[in-house]
Amino acid sequence: MLIQNGVLDERDRAILRLLQQDGRLTNLELAAQINLSPSACLRRVKLLEERGLISRYVMLVDEKAAGLPGTAFVLVTLDQQGRAALDAFEAAIQGHPEVTECCLLAGTADYMVRAVYANAADFERIHTEILTQLPGVVRVQSTLALRTVKRTTALPV
Predict the structure, then answer these.
(1) d(CA 124, CA 144)
(2) Do 74 and 139 meet the contact criterion of CB atoms below 8 Å apart?
(3) Phi, psi angle pair for 123, to nearest 5°
(4) DSSP secondary structure of 30-84
(5) Is 35 a residue whose pLDDT tops 90?
């Protein structure tokens, strides 16, 4: 059951796949789909949660329907790469909902930021009032996505 020697069994993989597809499945529906009793299914789900494999349940909002059809990927370079500078930048970026993802990089830039925006004026605001004003930022280089070909939150389990 569950993780043995760091490996998930097939039922646990099935639970993860199904819940990634539809996090609103009831325990009864989930149990029926993987051919387990509801109590055994719930026990497995709880163990997956306790072990951190299921970190949270969320609802995904369609960006275009929400009036945010634009996506920008922005490379950010800081003036310093010490722990204090990284911490200050990372703390500051948390407060901006336009930024949907931020990754520390190995390479010429320090971070890659994914930001969503409504139109060109909105992206200009994000660029000039938010991104360039974050602690330690000395350079930003933006690339605008023309169209999203694939985007998923599901992992291949």
Answers:
(1) 12
(2) no
(3) -65, -40
(4) HHHHHT--HHHHHHHHHHHHHTTSS-----PPPTTTTT--EEEEEEEEES--SHH
(5) yes
Structure tokens at 60: 């995904």
Q: From CA 141, how far away is CA 82, in angstroms rounded?
A: 21
Residues sharing a CB contact under 8 Å with residue 117, sequence separation 6 or more, in sequence order: 68, 70, 71, 72, 98, 123, 126
Cβ atoms of residues 51 and 36 within 8 Å: no
In the predicted model, is pLDDT for residue 39 greater than 70?
yes
Per the structure block, which two tokens stand in for 23? 């996090």
> Per the structure block, which two tokens stand in for 156?
């291949």
Sheet holding 99-104, edge to edge: 99-104, 111-117, 70-78, 137-144
Count helices and strands (H / E) in the chain: 5, 4
- pTM of the prediction? 0.87
Helical segments of 72-149, H only: 83-93, 120-125
Torsion of CA 52, 106, 157, 65, to 10 degrees: 90
| Burial 65-84, CB ≥16 within 10 A → b, else e | eeebebbbebbbbbeeeeee
Contacts (Cβ under 8 Å, ≥6 apart) of 51: 2, 3
